[in-house]
Write a structure and sequence with these properties.
This protein is mainly α. The chain has nine helices and no strands. α8 crosses α9.
């Protein structure tokens, strides 16, 4: 998370967010809309980075706020609301991706049963596909840590707070995620004679 993002959290809290939360809990729809507008862009961005799918990220953003508003009465203010929302986002995305992966696995099985692989005329799209698949195939906690650190720019301390782990655990998960990515992508980067043919 960048310093500007942290500053945004501080501004949101100082500008009356506790009162806004209280109004949402009391059933004030205009307050709910105000809270949604303030936090939806970053929730969507995190969901998109974790899923790589624009439409799915939109659906999961909506689901995140449905769950968050239902649980808002239990928010104690121990951390910034945005931190709590991102924790809810990670949980919602994790559940959503498990469902999507099961569905896509069935689709892939059907596609592969009835088609013959076409020759690739362009290596770059093929490598991008391999990269996305490699990220998608990472264990959930590795994928989340990789995306949050390498793509979103969160520090290990921030990841630890969001995921409920220590910064050392976050560093270990990132190291393992990168190692798995290198192992998965290595065959695609080398020609039969062992020479590297493309870069990522």
């Amino acid at each position: 998370m960048t310093s500007s993002a942290l500053a945004f959290e501080a501004r949101a809290f100082v500008s009356g967010e506790p009162e806004l939360i209280a109004r949402v809990v009391a059933g004030d729809r205009s307050a709910a809309r105000e809270l949604y507008d303030a936090h939806a862009p970053r929730v969507f961005r995190l969901a998109f980075r974790l899923t790589g799918d624009n439409e799915l990220a939109r659906e999961l953003t909506q689901e995140t706020f449905i769950r968050a508003f239902a649980q808002l009465g239990r928010f104690r203010g121990d951390s910034a609301l945005s931190t709590w929302l991102h924790r809810v986002t990670v949980s919602v995305v994790s559940n959503g991706m498990r469902k999507v992966k099961r569905f896509r696995a069935r689709e892939t099985d059907l596609d592969e049963a009835g088609t013959v692989p076409a020759q690739n005329r362009d290596g770059d799209p093929d490598m991008r596909d391999k990269l996305y698949r490699a990220i998608d195939e990472l264990p959930e906690i590795y994928r989340t840590t990789l995306v949050m650190h390498d793509v979103e720019g969160y520090t290990h301390e921030e990841i630890g707070e969001l995921l409920g782990v220590t910064p050392g655990t976050s560093k270990s998960q990132l190291f393992k995620a990168r190692a798995r990515m290198r192992k998965t992508l290595r065959p695609a980067r080398e020609a039969p004679n062992g020479e590297e043919v493309c870069h990522i």
